[in-house]
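Example record for the data management plan.
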Amino acid sequence: MLKPLRRMLRDTLGPTETLRYPEEELPRDHVEQLRGFVYLAHPESCISCGACRDICPNKVIELRPFEINGSVREVPVFHANMCMACGLCVEVCPTSALDFSSIIALVSDSPDIVILPNHSKELTEKKERGETRWRYQG
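Corresponding structural encoding:
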């Protein structure tokens, strides 16, 4: 009986093990070691082969028509809330058009978070700056 009580007091009154979220972001060296969700980093490189969609174990990738550089073609979109970040799609992409984001704190009002090609530039800029948070507005 005393053992659980001691544990609860130690956990409650002891030092915290988490960062003060959302006031503090993870340090950049932590972000380098973590995978965010996958996104289409280079839409102009995508050849619409569908290999990423076919290999995805959770079936979170679908091909949708989008206008890229003046022509409409099917490119992958990602349902980020169901992605387990296994990286199979990044590995199988023949043109290296896919990449992991640095976003590990994704905030949204929508239960269905769909990463579209028009998010590519913003996510690439956030990755270059080492940002870990993104407020999704889809």
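Summary line stored alongside the record: The radius of gyration is 19 Å.
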